[in-house]
Write a structure and sequence with these properties.
By secondary structure, the protein is α/β, with parallel strands linked by helices. It is 31% helix and 30% strand. It folds into two domains: 2-221, Rossmann fold; 227-274, no CATH class. The protein contains ten helices and 14 strands. The chain has a six-stranded mixed beta sheet, with helices on both faces. Strands 2-1-4-5 form a four-stranded antiparallel beta sheet, covered by helices on one side.
Length: 290
């Protein structure tokens, strides 16, 4: 199974192009989708999910045009949008049974499937409570469960770990890892560590365009030799930020450890080169292309 996207574009008006000449082939496994706010990630995923139509380009799943034949992907699709909504008066069982009916699912195995999914997202103990009483993280977990109802072969998750605590995020990552062998999974998140943990490949978008797509280790390699750390006095931090792209800071006693990207090979005195991470590479590539 493969999803081939060729020269995809989405233009809302003369001033706003959300996706521009986007081309990529997505195979089985986990594709991590990164990009700043407004990069076009959610628009791209809505188009793949056939909720929105592109202005141009083609999308082929196993050679079938899913713009012209949207039901071909819909029957194997699981989708969790960023703005996922629930029916607050329904409990988890009732909600998932409702979503199953919307997807044309039924039969003797449905209740067992729902039980397994609720266990997988750690909601069994709260399954009979109205969803309106759930916390934000619990609602997000019921959203993950509904995306998995039809045993999908194409899964699209838009910011799936928002509101989840560290233990829940770990459980989600394990769930995705178990599914990745047989499914195409597209995972968009601003939490780079989530993608770093589970993504086989990474695609980075900026201003509607694809700026890079490769296995994760190749993305990281692009930032090698450009990431440094240095200890500074508090008073020097603001002026340092004016000269270097700071990725992060951490207090060490009466000083501050600063992780930064060297610009044009300029390195501050007493700096130490450090091993690049995916977050470093993401920051390097997006600032390099801006």
């Amino acid at each position: 199974m493969a999803l081939l996207i060729n020269n995809l574009s989405k233009q809302y008006n003369v001033q706003k192009t959300a996706v521009s000449n986007f081309s990529i082939q997505i195979n089985k496994g986990v594709l991590g989708l990164l990009g700043p706010n407004g990069a076009g990630k959610s628009t791209l995923m809505k188009i793949i999910a056939t909720i929105s139509k592109p202005s141009g380009g083609t999308l082929l799943l196993d050679g079938i045009d899913i713009v012209q034949n949207p039901n071909y992907i819909r029957k194997v699709l699981g989708y969790l949008p960023q703005d996922f909504g629930v029916y607050p008066n329904l409990n988890a069982y009732e909600f998932l049974e409702y979503i199953a009916a919307m997807k044309g699912l039924g039969g003797k195995g449905l209740r067992q499937r729902i039980d397994l999914l609720l266990e997988g997202v750690n909601l069994t103990a709260d399954a009979k409570r109205p969803i309106g009483t759930y916390s934000g993280g619990m609602k997000q977990r019921i959203g993950i469960a509904q995306a998995l109802l039809n045993d999908p072969k194409v899964l699209i998750f838009d910011e799936p770990t928002v509101g989840l605590d560290p233990e829940e995020r770990m459980r989600f990552r394990q769930l995705i890892a178990d599914l990745a062998q047989d499914s195409i999974i597209i995972l968009s998140s601003h939490i780079v560590s989530d993608i770093e943990t589970i993504a086989d490949e990474v695609a980075i978008m900026q201003e509607g365009k694809l700026i890079t797509h490769a296995p994760q280790y190749e993305i990281i390699k692009q930032a090698e030799g450009r990431i440094f750390e240095v200890l500074l006095d508090n008073a020097d931090l603001n002026s340092f930020k004016n000269q270097h792209k700071v990725i992060g800071t951490a207090r060490q006693g009466d000083k501050i450890s600063v992780r930064y990207i060297s610009k044009a090979g300029v390195v501050a005195p007493l700096s130490v080169q450090v091993t690049a991470t995916l977050e470093d590479a993401y920051m390097f590539l997006t600032q390099h292309n801006s």
